[in-house]
Amino acid sequence: MAVVGASKLRTSGGTRWQSRGRRVQCHASPSGTTAESSSPSPSPSSSSSSARTLRARREEVVLESSKGKVWDAIVVGSGMGGLTTAAKMVAKGADVLVLEKYVIPGGSAGYYQREGCTFDVGSSMMFGFGTEGTTNLLTRALESVGKKMETIPDPAQIHYHLPSSRAHPDGLKVVVHRRYEEFVDELASKFPHEREGIEKFYGDCWTVFDALNSLDLKSLEEPLYLFGEFFKNPVACLQLAYFLPQNAGDIARKYIQDEELLSFIDMECYCWSTVKAAVTPMINAGMVFCDRHYGGINYPRGGVGRIPLVMAEGIEEKGGKVVCAANVSRILTERGGGGGGEEGSKVKAVGVELSDGTRLRSRAVISNATRWDTFKQLVEEGDVPQSEVDFFKRYKKSPSFITAHIVVEPSVVTESCYCHNIVLEDWAKLEDGRGTLFVSIPTILDPSLAPEGRHIVHAFTPDWIDSWSGLSKEEYAEKKEAVAREMIARLEEAFLPGLSEAVVFKEVGTPRTHMKFLNRQDGTYGPIPSKRPLGLLGMPFNRTDVESLYCVGDSTFPGQGVNAVAFSGFACAHRALADLDLEPRNEVMDRGMQGLFAFLRGLV
Ligand SMILES: NC(=O)c1ccc[n+]([C@@H]2O[C@H](COP(=O)([O-])OP(=O)(O)OC[C@H]3O[C@@H](n4cnc5c(N)ncnc54)[C@H](O)[C@@H]3O)[C@@H](O)[C@H]2O)c1
Ligand SMILES: CC(C)=CCC/C(C)=C/C=C/C(C)=C/C=C/C(C)=C/C=C/C=C(C)/C=C/C=C(C)/C=C/C=C(\C)CCC=C(C)C
């Protein structure tokens, strides 16, 4: 894997990455092996030596292609969706090339360094890192390429600091403890008249989770697997089929009457789905509301950004290639891929073109870019299938985020602080731009992220790109400053008194920053339904109507979230491997299944 600011070292222990003049982090993994990886500063201003490393790496790939190499699969983008796909595919012997536009892998799960601190670009809240069951998808994806990471258990998922009401004059404060019973007791102590409703709603979430956690999670659009799972575990499959078209809000309203508690459930959903409970698929709610207690929230030692680094290392050790600073400008297609007759005019993806004009060929192309970037940028307009036009009607872009990475003196973070916090002062503003404030203090879990005597406070709040467009340089800088001041003031009021005095460094990112560095149109966090959806029924799986072109990541089933995109990676790898004849398949059943799914999506 090539990254700017890093050079490859051969050591007796294998290959490791060392950043130029920066510390190399070395972590003992629980397995007793030593996983070493660097934390290079992902600054696009590369030195000539790192630029040389990148050029050499790319030239190696280009040379192979010029000799007629056809990869089994080219993955466009190295977010957690793309990397998980690549990891599962190389583990089955496929020849996979991952091309990443940015200078390090990871996308939203990336990192950057300043002032001796390692900052998570996105959220620091990691699901899917447990040790048991089948839903610990990050653990399992790493395992498939022979990797294991040390993680730090978080005693709670979130500390909510919510609006005051007559019943809760000092504000509704709820801690989502790691132990389920402790959380239910805490919530029921705030709403004693609703204990039964609380237990029933979260009880249904457990039904979903237990069903998911009993399946071998793979592609739902591969019929041999799907029927196999139905045969092995009919009850779990029927339970999932029952909840698949449902939303969390409808289930909550069946059991709960108290409007303040229903607002709390809205916030429970909004803070990871960016929509209220009425529009949040019940399957995803079941996954999130139970994995936090079952596997727990676990922070990877060294930062979230180490996950993609370690996974990319594993992919390469299994024979794949991960090339950074490789911007795919076009997905190459040919007509007639269907093999004559009516099918003969079908469009087929055959490779990609990089922004310097280099063409690379593959049997499958897997796009980890958002659907907006894939079908409005990378695929020629005339090749865009009707099913994608329909997707753009069913789903719209969620807002992006304003983020402030703040380094503070330690006094401000007291013993009673939790890592993850949500702040809201007025229920009516829950979904507004700059309404809900998300706060992570990852140094509570892993002090090694900052120099001794410092904490990192990462505050972020949703906002739209429009409110950051058309500003002069000065206006943009002033607006960033003003918004950061406002966030700090809210945090001081909510749970970090004295914060403004304790700031030693801060860096503010806007939707424009996210658009630029994450390469996501308008910096969007992911797709959200345009109208009330039928649960997950409208969310497309990984195959597209362009033959041999797949999508993976949060524009595919089951949507946003790091273990959601990890699932989409498991599913995408399985479907693509079957199409490449590296997993079992049945052509006739495949066709029937595609028809059924197209019909079901037509209902939404
Ligand atoms: N803590 C968390 O829960 C957490 C943290 C990070 C991410 N996430 C989730 O991950 C989801 C996003 O993951 P994802 O895998 O779908 O996508 P992603 O946006 O994270 O990664 C996509 C990658 O593709 C690259 N890319 C885009 N266009 C490209 C092109 N033309 N050429 C080469 N590379 C290109 C981008 O640079 C990016 O690295 C989000 O919904 C978010 O919920 C969650
Ligand atoms: C096909 C038919 C008709 C029937 C089949 C039935 C069947 C077998 C169905 C199976 C369904 C399956 C397998 C579904 C799988 C679903 C999965 C794996 C869903 C996973 C969802 C995970 C989610 C949504 C995770 C989200 C996590 C997020 C977004 C975390 C980020 C959090 C933040 C950004 C908040 C940060 C907060 C603070 C406070 C700082």
UniProtKB/TrEMBL annotation:
It comes from the Eukaryota. GO terms for molecular function: carotenoid isomerase activity; oxidoreductase activity. Its EC number is 5.2.1.13. Pfam families: Amino_oxidase. GO terms for biological process: carotenoid biosynthetic process. It catalyses: 7,7',9,9'-tetra-cis-lycopene = all-trans-lycopene. Residues 28-53 have a biased composition (Low complexity). SUPFAM superfamilies: FAD/NAD(P)-binding domain. The keyword NADP applies. It is found in: Plastid, Chloroplast membrane. Gene3D superfamilies: FAD/NAD(P)-binding domain (3.50.50.60). This is prolycopene isomerase. It comes from Chloropicon primus.
